Amino acid sequence: MLEKSVLAARIAHAIANSPYSQEGVAREFGITEQAVSGWVRTGKIGKGKLPKLAELTGMPLEYFLVENVSVS
User: Which of 9, 21, 46, 56 is deepest in the core (most CB within 10 A)?
Assistant: First the structure.
């Protein structure tokens, strides 16, 4: 898994470049916006949530898992 700071930056980037706001992502997961904000700040997210986050943001799952991944 990626270093937490790298994962945090990738989560922030993925959400910012998706049709969802942090609030929208929170709604889709059934959690608070503060929890999603925590993911963006700290990179602490359960691995089980990553497939759904990838689906929502349109990013490949590997973007959140692999250090050297190219995204077009």
Answer: 56
Express each pLDDT in 47-62 by its tens digit. 999 999 999 999 999 9
Could you tell me the pTM of the whole model? 0.92
Q: How many helices (H) and strands (E) does the chain have?
A: 4, 0
The 3-class SS string of the chain reads CCCHHHHHHHHHHHHHCCCCCHHHHHHHHCCCHHHHHHHHHHCCCCHHHHHHHHHHHCCCHHHHCCCCCCCC
How far apart are alpha carbons 28 and 7 in whole angstroms? 20
Q: How many residues does the chain have?
A: 72
Burial class for 45, CB neighbours closer than 10 Å (0-12, 13-18, 19+): buried
